[in-house]
Give the backbone structure.
Amino acid sequence: MEIVLNLMIVFFAFWAMEFVAWFSHKYIMHGFLWILHEDHHNQPKGFLQKNDAFFLIFAIPSMFSFILGALLNIIPLISVGAGILLYGIAYFLMHEILVHKRYKTLYNLLFKNSKSRYLKALLKAHYAHHKHLTKDGGESFGMLIFHPKYLKLAKEK
């Protein structure tokens, strides 16, 4: 029974991170930390962006949960860290590889020939977000959850 509870915690932490990411993207990245996020909307030359700092920022709660959970032998806290980590992996796969194709070999291996309507809708939602080059306005701030209209748009093509 304990394993089921911990798996549920992993699942909840994973999906909670989608809402944390949405809130952070809309109100922090497009707010007072726009200085770090701006280059992501303007596609600078080079491989690294200031925006990549957010990977480290979002990794801190996961690392903290793993370390504190291990030190204090609190398995549910380790499960929270695992959920956050798994969300980070999913975000990396979807955002860095699928959407922005920053790792071409992985893109070709994982996504190039995909016919998934969900993935097409995710791309449409993210590209709609990126049509805004300033911190104001904007739409579709989430990553894995997006407005159903993008599924309809993905079906049309």
In short: The first helix runs from residue 2 to 32. The chain has one domain: 2-112. Residues 51 and 71 are 32 Å apart (CA to CA).
